[in-house]
Write a structure and sequence with these properties.
alpha/beta, Spore Coat Polysaccharide Biosynthesis Protein SpsA, Chain A, 8 helices, about 15% strand
Length: about 240
């Protein structure tokens, strides 16, 4: 398998090098024969870009935004550059373990899946950030499932893996964190129309707090509700 790992990055100078090193090590593991890393610097104001530039000679495909546009916009840019058989999203903050990507690749290959979500809650009905975080995510996922007809346990997960031709058919309009419910809504339409195979599997999760640099906030949760209704009602 050739895998494209898409990394949207904004002001992650302290973590992005460690993250890329971890991602580079998954090449050759499991079914991953070829690895393509696409990093998009979303006009960082710290030294993130300088850190990323050091990896261009190591094969990382680096794209740049001239102004800060948000995670959704960075992912949209990265998707256009993906050439792998499968594509997966990867945050740059070390909350998600790239070793789980190896397990996900093995699963999609063994089961012939078109879409695979890595769930933080499938085997663990709690959250390291506490009950409120779990309830918010559970509520958003349940609302999303109501409109999509899917039976997901973690719609907001970063680890979403697609056959590349599938994700490249999805027009992402949201510029910030709203891309998660948007992608899920639009993906569900493709699943039903084309009878695609979709599954979930448990993954690990080591969240950081807002004082450690976490960027998603309350307003993004409110926006997610709006997006679920917006794309759910027009599907």
């Amino acid at each position: 398998m050739k895998l494209s790992v898409l990394i949207p990055v904004y002001n992650e100078e302290n973590t992005v090098a460690d993250l890329i090193e971890k991602v580079m090590k998954i090449k050759g593991q499991g079914v991953i024969d070829e690895l393509e890393i696409v990093a998009v610097d979303d006009c960082s104001s710290d030294k993130t870009l300088q850190v990323l530039e050091k990896y261009e000679d190591k094969g990382v495909k680096l794209l740049r935004h001239e102004k800060n546009m948000g995670k959704g916009a960075a992912v949209r840019t990265a998707i256009k550059a993906a050439t792998g058989d499968y594509t997966i999203f990867q945050d740059a903050d070390l909350e998600y373990d790239p070793q789980d990507i190896v397990r996900m690749c093995d699963k999609v290959e063994a089961e012939g899946l078109d879409v695979l979500y890595g769930s933080r809650f499938l085997d663990n009905r709690t959250s390291p950030l506490g009950k409120f975080h779990f309830m918010v995510n559970a509520g958003l996922t349940t609302l999303s499932n109501f409109f999509t007809g899917l039976k997901l346990t973690d719609m907001e997960t970063c680890y979403k893996m697609f056959r590349t031709e599938i994700i490249q058919k999805i027009k992402i309009e949201e510029n910030r964190f709203g891309l998660e419910p948007e992608i899920t809504a639009k993906m569900s339409s493709l699943v039903k129309k084309n009878k695609l195979k979709i599954a979930e599997m448990p993954i690990s999760y080591a969240p950081r707090k807002h004082d450690e640099g976490k960027k998603i906030g309350f307003s993004d949760g409110v926006r997610a509700v709006y997006i679920i209704f917006k794309y759910g009602l027009i599907r």
